[in-house]
Amino acid sequence: MIKIASSLLSANFVRLEEEINNIQQAGADILHLDIMDGHFVPNLTFGLPVIKQIKDIAQIPVDVHLMVTNPDVYLETLGKWNIDYVSFHQEAESHIHRQLKVLQEKGVKAGIALNPATPVETIFPVIADLDFVLIMSVNPGFGGQSFIPLVYKKIEILRKLADQINPDLEIEVDGGVNNINAAKLINTGADILVAGSFVFGSDDYKKQIQSLRNK
Ligand code: DX5
Ligand code: ZN
């Protein structure tokens, strides 16, 4: 069963609580929070205090996607707050195995995020230690960019290996997801689809979310 993670990056930040309530009522499975530091990506969003406030009112699981150069400084705190999913970028962290354990010891589902140009093979050594992998289908930093189709092959390779070594591993796809590519992503092996502008750019969140689920 596919899960739809709504990226709040494209929500109206002035009316954030209302947006969260509306997206939950529209059937989103997960709230996806994009944390950008202006270094790892050329954009800034919000940090720990806002994550905590969102977690306190969320009625569905919260998924924190760290697009930052020093993810290690966030992990303990996110674990303490019982954040449901946390991913950091393979390109930003030299001690992947250690940081995964920091999250998992606190009961957080731990994931690695991969930029479009990073081969999926780079995470094979830790595949048994991962709860999920976030495959970027745009270059991280902004909502509303065009989907990069090379990710289908990456999903296929990862799914095949995960089925042998870690069948519970979830594959999350993030960036440019819409009702045109969703079916192929699901059929290729995606378990979680992140959608920002496709959902929040419409007046009818429910219709958009349903159109992503319908193969
Ligand atoms: C981009 C973020 C995404 C983004 C997706 O760096 O990681 O989560 O919000 O937005 P859309 O769905 O508009 O591509
Ligand atoms: Zn994201």
Molecular structure report:
Helix content is 34%, strand content 20%. With 215 residues, it is an alpha/beta fold. It has one domain (3-213): TIM Barrel. The protein has an eight-stranded parallel β-barrel with strand order 1-2-3-4-5-6-7-8, surrounded by six helices. The radius of gyration is 16 Å and the shape is globular. 40% of the residues are buried. The mean pLDDT is 97. The protein binds D-xylitol-5-phosphate and zinc ion (ZN). D-xylitol-5-phosphate binds at residues 7, 9-10, 32, 34, 65, 138, 140-141, 143-145, 174-177, 194-198. Zinc ion (ZN) binds next to strand 2.
Provide a brief overview of the structure:
This protein has 215 residues and is α/β, with parallel strands linked by helices. It has a single domain (3-213), classed as TIM Barrel (Alpha-Beta Barrel).
* Average pLDDT number: 97
User: What would you call the structural class?
Assistant: alpha/beta
Query: Strand arrangement, largest sheet?
Result: 1-2-3-4-5-6-7-8
Low-confidence stretches: none
Morphology call: globular
The name of the CATH superfamily reads Aldolase class I
Number of alpha- plus pi-helical segments: 8
The H/E string reads EHEHEHEHEEHEHEHH
CATH architecture: Alpha-Beta Barrel
Strand runs, count: 8
Short key terms for the protein model shown above:
8 strands; 8-stranded parallel barrel; binds D-xylitol-5-phosphate; TIM Barrel
